[in-house]
Amino acid sequence: MSTTRRGIFMHIRDVIRRNPILLPVAFVAALSTVLIGESSYWQSTRVLDQLIALRSGKSSLQELRTAALDSQADIHRTLLLNRLGAGALSAAGLVVLFMYLRQGLALEQEKERVKQELQRVVQIERERLEVEVALRTAQLVKLTHHIETAREEERARLARDLHDEMGALLISAKLDAARIKPRLIESAPEAVERLAHLVDMLNKGIALKHNIIENLRPSSLSNLGLAVTLDILVHDFAERSGIKVHCALSVVQLEPAAELVVYRVVQEAVTNISKYAKATNLWVDLVSSDGLVELTVRDDGVGFDTSSPSTSAYGLLGMRFRVEAEHGTLVVTAAPGQGTTIQVRLPERVIES
């Protein structure tokens, strides 16, 4: 009980501390109540005393009437005092109500101000973060473009070196073997079989060199065009993997760098399909419409959840940055058990007349 009383007392003290005007208002209300009660009490006591005196014969009726006339003014004063007390009490109540309402309104206004200020700060921070993310994304796209350009240049250099240096060595070795063969037939027939095996190994080395060069920098891209190069890439993949391919490749106009990006996207896509998709069919479409070139690569494999990280996600991320570096877009649509679809859109090259 003492704890409850202490809590109530502390609450009242906090209220008075926040609203100091409540203390004089409460004092006026209490004083008005006391005055009303005291005046009514003394007036009632006086009337009772006069009636007792009249009954005991100590006072006559005439004296009572005279006293009544004398006390009439007192009654009017008492009523006036009661009215004043009631008015003061009502005024005190109105003041308290006004203070309460004003405080409530002030609190609501303060809450609204704090809320608006918080929203403004959050909005400013959000805009700052959006600008920073956009800036970092643009920097990352530029960095990706720089890295990919450097990598493609290095691949082109390696392809040239393999073609010029190693190619020349292999061809020279093959020609030397062809020159030695007639002499071995006459002088050492038993070595002809070993020479034939050597020539076969040289031919395989030349073919391997050719495949490495094509993987580093497809020569067919500049000699035969994008559509033919993609057809060769996809059908080679079909022969190695056993997956049925369905191609609808149109001749399109793209910048050389964009053509290489499309080739790399398809190359990465078929690599992922062979590793993870477990697909039986592959569709590759290449069309142009309204100034845009659209590539679609679709499979009927196991698919994946795009919201969860996976091993192939890094390859897809690299694809996206490469496409964005050429001012294009890449969209990946996939779901578990529903295959995967990759759509790339790039601006078509404008041919000046």
Report on the architecture of this protein:
With 353 residues, this protein is α+β, with helices and mostly antiparallel strands. The chain folds into two domains: 124 residues, no CATH class; 129 residues, Heat Shock Protein 90. It contains eight helices and five strands. The protein has a five-stranded mixed sheet, with helices on one face. The longest helix is centred in the middle third of the chain and has 127 residues.
Which bin fits the share of residues in helices? over 70%
Order of helices and strands: HHHHHHEHEEHEE
Report the uncertain regions.
38-42
How many domains? The number is 2
User: What portion of the residues fall into strands of 2 or more residues?
Assistant: 5-15%
CATH top level assignment of the largest domain: Alpha Beta
- Radius of gyration (CA) equals 51 Å
Question: What is the strand and helix layout of this fold?
Answer:
Elements (H helix, E strand, L loop, with lengths): L1 H17 L3 H35 L4 H127 L4 H25 L2 H5 L2 H16 L2 E6 L6 H22 L3 E9 L2 E8 L13 H13 L3 E6 L5 E8 L6
Parallel strand pairs: 1-2
Antiparallel strand pairs: 2-3, 3-5, 4-5
